[in-house]
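Why Alpha-mannosidase? Reviewers of the renewal asked for a concrete example.
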Amino acid sequence: MTIFRLHSRVNRVWAVRGLCLTLVFYIVGYVMRMSSDVGGVQSRSLLKTRDFQKAKLENVGTSSITIRTVATTKKQDLLECRSDFSDPYNTTTTLDLAERTYFDDLIDGQYVLPHKPVNEAAYSDNLEPLTVIIMPFTHVDPGWLQTLDEYYMFSVRNILDGMVRKLVFYPELTFIWAEIVFFSMWWNEQNKEIKQNVRDLVKQDEASTSYTSVIDQQTEGHQWLLDNVGVTPNNSWSVDPFGHSGTMPYIWKLAGMKNMVINRIHQGTKAQMIRENGLDFYWRQFWTQDADIFCHCMPYEVYSLKSNCGPDRKICERFDFQHVEGVFYEKINPEIDNINVVNLSRLLYEQYRMKSSLFKHNTVLVPLGDDFRYDHMNEWDQQYVNYKKLMEYMNSKPEWKIHVKFGTLNDFLNTVYKHSDTSKFPIISGDFFPYSDRKSGYWTGYFTTRVFDKTFSRDVESRLRAAEIMHSFASTYSKHWNRKYAGLVSLARQLTSARQNYGLFLHHDAITGTERQNVAMDYEQRLFSAYNIAGKVLTEATHFVLSRGKNSGPSNMKFLTSRKDSIHLAQHNLVKLFEEGSKIVIYNPTGQFRSEFVGITFDQYAIEIIDSKNRSLVYQLNPVFSSNEKVSKSLVEVWFLTEIAPFGVETYTVRKTSRPHKGQWASISVRNMKNLVLPSKLKFKFKPELSVDGMPISIQNEHMAAYFNENYGFLNRVKQLSGGDETGIDIDLSFVQYTSSASGAYTFVPDGPAIPFINTVPNIRIIEGPYLSEVQVVCPTIYHRIKLYKHKGLVGTQLHIDNTLDMASHDMASREVAMRLQTSIQNEKGTFFTDQNGFQYIRRKRHPSDKIRQHIERNFYPLTTMAFMQDDLRRLTLHSAQPHGVASLESGWLEVMLDRHIFFGDGRGMDDPVIDNKITETSFILQLEYSEKPLSDEYYSFPSLDSTVMNGFLNKPLQRMFTTMSLTGFGSNFQPVKSDLPCGISLESAKVLYNYVSGAVKGIGLILHRHGFRCSFRSKSDCEYTNLNLETLLPDTNNLDIKETTINFVQEKSSSRYLTLSSIEMKPMEIKAFFVQDTTLNKHLNKTILH
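Here is what the prediction returned.
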């Protein structure tokens, strides 16, 4: 779910006479990516209201960063940077809430919620009228204990068949459906009559949606709903992700959502929220008051009907009337009759009243369902008939003042709004991690479980995004060049298939790694399919633009790295060279000019590299090791500098020559190695004088120097050579392991503190050349590399870290391995910052329940793309190319969990061991920066501009292709954009949208994001501080209709009327969506797309 640019599952919901169609894409905490001068009064309780805050804000003034639009304004005047990152809008923060929470209020290990006594709640003299909404639903995971297809075949098809029949038969009955992936499978099997019946059942205002951190997946589902069913979602239903990110409320707001419902947050936190009247609240972003969304938090541990009628689970279990022949039940509940209805109605009434005592309003939502319920036709009758009798009896008791009815999520929310002063609801900022359901259970293990698949999904994400953007350029330029783009619709359909497979993996039991092994294999196959499709589309679209549309034949390009299957790492493809030369094709999928070194493996070293301007390039020759101590005779790694325009494509011709005219051989030195076998024909410079055990190890460029432990080869110090503190900081990098007999796929329960993971002296290799230097550490289970590029720009200011970890072929039972950085950064103990879905950055502290500092598991948080720690003027940032769990257990410490081998289940539903580990490669960038102003961030912060740019480059890598076929008739490059996008603005998505029913192309959807960043750090980025000129992204705008929309391209925004393409204003942190349509192709935009 979040996770985290956090975990996605595809859903949709509907209500019959309340059929509520819900689209869901879970990314549990994984799954996106400002600076200012105003502070605020810290909140002491949740009893801060919207009215109170608005009054305070009138005195505070604006708190957003403004980037003025006058082009002649000096750069330093264009930014208003915050120096105080305390609580600017006087909200209650989840950080403060945790400090006030009493985490020891438990009975038998279960957290206790502060209900009123039954006599006070149900039988006092001043009872208020109570409305109870019974909401039938089913929760269908698209892969968990069974695969997607197995669930559909054996359960889901039956549920949907029964739903259509029973919702017509019982006019009062309502039903909530989630998971569009299942609904679309079923929909495609139905005839026109059934489809129309479904459309008639769905109420237009009842569509709701569930947790997502992938805007693309959200768009996919919402567009499908609009085209097929004719509805647009307005509520979010998110009851099963394992914790909740603070980014999701903002994303849902941008998609047109008005409300959201959540469930799985720390039960101790729920208890404190109840004490402070806060289970219903407005969820606010730290940096703006303009994106609040109403949130209802369900009080009990899970969403099951057996847990949700009230506080007594044993009583709630008595009101599950499912009885399927042939299924074993420990107890079958009797049907309601004229005799037992009296006592059972009283019991249920008391539970409803006690549940209502947890809220400030007199409306209770009671979900009536569970996992894969209503898959037998008779359950519909059993639940409806019995609950109908209970309702009629309770509604007939005037002294109870209760009205119970079937309803939908929308019915519940409308009732709350109608009978409550919602302006008095509290406001909360922050997120709800980590999640805990009981005292010993902190769900922090899944942040890292099956990290191979998490990493694979990032590869798919970056390639899919690149393919969609290039496909969009091919589409727009085909019109500009007056050339037919044969793949316009067919490739768009293939991209849809890739998005659906990728989106399925983002479900909260997939990207989390909390599914059974056979289900994980099914997910991996789907990722592999998406990976290959995205690659095909990218090569075809690149082929089209390089030929200026003149060559529409199939592409013969291949990728420099590719995967042969779904279970192995990507491999470097060998580029064979011929006399006439081979072409290297490199695509920059970002809106910034990129100057980077690229490494390619050849079986020739006597080569010439010629760029698109016919210049012969200097290159560095690095060794390829065939074993620990032996350099390959036939292969070399060639590094050269690429310079590529925003969204541009550059080609490089590589030819055989008699000798490497401009090739620079790297030097090699080693430690802890008896021999180094170097082929004589390769002219690498071996340095025996440096290959002495115990000698100091260091690498450096003009910006910085890195020093390494002479015995183990691990980093131990970094010093900046240009600016900053030239004394540097200590950074002791090591690998540690936790052992556990109680961890599971979900939870992390270490036996104690970590112990060293590397117990043998490793082989160390130091490679140095004119373009990069690298320290390689080779151990039996891990291959660790740190590169330093000799680049004058931003790329040369960081260390690039790669780890290849093998937990599959060694005895790694019940071990959990982490990379730990112990530094001289003097941060408060346990205090650091992590990203929320790669979008914003929140402060973390040692968990307040861990007072004696023995509960390590409580202090891990989701890392999606970035974590940093800081003291007064220094900041150390770790950028990540894949999701992990991260912690700062001591002052100056930062550690990232790399992989887990789990031999036991943890009793959370999927109790299988996780022992299908694969060789996994993880990549990081380590960045040291010095601030010109003190860093006193209280609750949240922002990266520097340089950090924002580098993180984007890491997670949106150059797409590298090659071909050995002739490219006669092809251009040497493609440069669709004349200049960089303005500072901090990124094009997150560009995709061709088509109608799912008719197949007609609608237009192109653009998603842009203006990142916020801290301005107190010096920047090496060369970009302009201006408004966005959208015309620079399009070849011509004469026949284009461009509208600003919700981020799902479903609803046009009123601001479209004032849209000026040449100067689009975006405030820092804003995400905006634009729909671009060729008016010569479609005249009925508002009818086909925008609602």
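Confidence is low (pLDDT under 50) at residues 1-84, 204-213, 1083-1091. This is the kind of structural detail the renewal will allow us to pursue systematically.
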